[in-house]
Amino acid sequence: MDKRNHHGGTDHADLRDETLVIHADDGLANDGGIAPAIYYTATFRAQNAAEFADMAGTPRHPRYYTRYGNPVHERVKKIMAELEGTETALVTGSGMGAIATTLLALVSAGDHVIAQTRHYMSTAKIMDEMLPRFGVEVTLVEQADVSAFADAIRPNTKLIMVETPANPTLVVTDLAAVVSLARPRGIIVVADNTFASPINQRPHDLGVDVVVHSATKYLGGHHDLTAGVICTSEELAERIWHTHISLGSVLSPMDAWLLLRGLRTLPVRMDRINANALALAEFLEKQPQIERVYYPGLPSHPQHDLAKRQMRGFGAVIAFAIKGGYEETQRFVSTLKLSQNAVSLGGVDSLVVHTAAMWEGVMTEEQMRIAGIPSNFVRFSVGIEHIEDLKADVLQALRAV
Ligand SMILES: *Cc1c(COP(=O)(O)O)cnc(C)c1O
Fold first, then answer.
1. Which residue, 116, 117, 122, 342, could crosslink 143 as a Cys pair with Cβ 3.0–4.6 Å?
2. Under-70 pLDDT residues of the chain
3. CB of 255 closer than 6 A to ligand 1?
4. pLDDT score, position 202
């Protein structure tokens, strides 16, 4: 992988991602173990009154009280700040913990926020329901249209939230263009980088102020933990941290340790995932039972050029439409043997979701149509299995359609 320009406050400008995930946290206190210790404690002892005062009075202290910080958190934060090229990072108990904490820390009543018409469902709920309840106005814009962001800006616009690529059809937001609108006006840009991972996309390199992640996905990578990460400047991290300790989205030391373990293999997993997903997307596009494939790595994606410009790989998630309706699509999904029918993405196992079946309980058919969720839509998160086995499995399921 290319050596990249790690600006920001990073200490390892000379190291590549594969090395950073193993060594960026080397300098942090250790008792000699090659694998780091799990500090399974809620609280830490002070040696004397002066030290206690220092621990209590230092924001983001790593050894005072685990809601404030923990030595395992420090390691994850160090690696994530290096991977995203930001000065520092914070960790939270979930991706939504990272997103909600960031938004509630940075906006106040009377502020205006611009967000996308397509966001992760719980982020969309914050925009639609929660922020307005607290007197924050929100304008939703079509993310592929840069002029829609420009038109939405008002004198009180405080923050622009972007997410790219985004569900369900992997639409891409032009990060550099959004930053060029926000920067001169002092508007904070927050990017949900979950669908790309720092290996495939580094929003801070393009000027994004805060990069948030659901670490439940690629970063953990094994579908065994729930966590979130916020990568940003020292100044914004301190502001967000003060809200974080009040909202209390704390990452448990065990899950932080599992996340640390997951991060060690992130670059090698992403290499395999990117290659598998591109090969599977190309393969799907050739099958007669497939109506359409949505994947930013395919030349048929309407924003393929933009995706190539701002991403180095295109990630695990492929969306596609099966020729047929609900029944045919359901038959395809239930005939797959290797890919399991489950939500989430970015782990070692391939997962598949029949989108309409997922929303059936909460949305009417009409609502699904408006939300752009046709009955024949499938979301596939490609794992690290052998590509020929994945293709064979998809082929036998398509024949059952
Ligand atoms: C999963 C996800 C989230 C939420 O993360 P959790 O860890 O489940 O709280 C937010 N944004 C995106 C894009 C996601 O995929």
1. 116
2. 1-10, 371-372
3. no
4. 98
For residue 346, which atom of ligand 1 is closest to its CA? 15
pLDDT tens digits, residue range 322-356? 999 999 999 999 999 999 999 999 999 999 999 88
The CB of 94 under 6 Å from ligand 1? The reply is yes
Q: Which has the closest alpha carbon to 328: 362, 357, 369, 349?
A: 357
Q: What is the largest CA-CA distance in the chain?
A: 74
Question: Does 274 sit in the ligand 1 pocket, CB within 6 Å?
Answer: no
Q: Where are the alpha helices (DSSP H) in 24-170?
A: 49-57, 71-84, 95-106, 121-125, 131-133, 146-152
Look up the pTM and report it.
0.95
Q: Which amino acid is at 378?
A: V
**What is the CA(94)–ligand 1 centre distance, in A?**
8
Please answer whether residues 296 and 173 qualify as being in contact, where contact means their C-beta atoms are separated by less than 8 angstroms.
Answer: no
- Classify strands 317-322 and 290-294 as parallel, antiparallel or unpaired: antiparallel
The pair of structure tokens assigned to 348 is 């070692």
Buried b (16+ CB within 10 A) or exposed e, 316-332: bbbbbbbebebebbbbb
pLDDT (0 to 100) of residue 262:
98
User: Best substitution site from 173, 217, 358 to test ligand 1's pocket, by max atoms within 8 Å of Cβ?
Assistant: 217
Distance between Cα 244 and ligand 1 center (Å): 17
Residues 6+ positions from 247 with CB-CB distance below 8 Å: 97, 100, 101, 104
User: Looking at the domain 17-264, which fold is it?
Assistant: Aspartate Aminotransferase; domain 2 (3.40.640)
Q: Where are the domains of the chain?
A: 17-264, 267-398
Burial class (CB in 10 A: 0-12, 13-18, 19+), 71: buried
* Nearest by Cα to 307 from 278, 283, 266: 278
Q: d(Cα 282, Cα 337) in Å, to the nearest integer?
A: 21
User: Other CB atoms closer than 10 Å to residue 245's CB: what's the count?
Assistant: 16
- CB of 69 closer than 6 angstroms to any ligand 1 atom: no
Q: Is the CB of 195 under 6 A from ligand 1?
A: yes
**Is the torsion defined by CA of 291, 294, 299, 305 positive or negative?**
positive
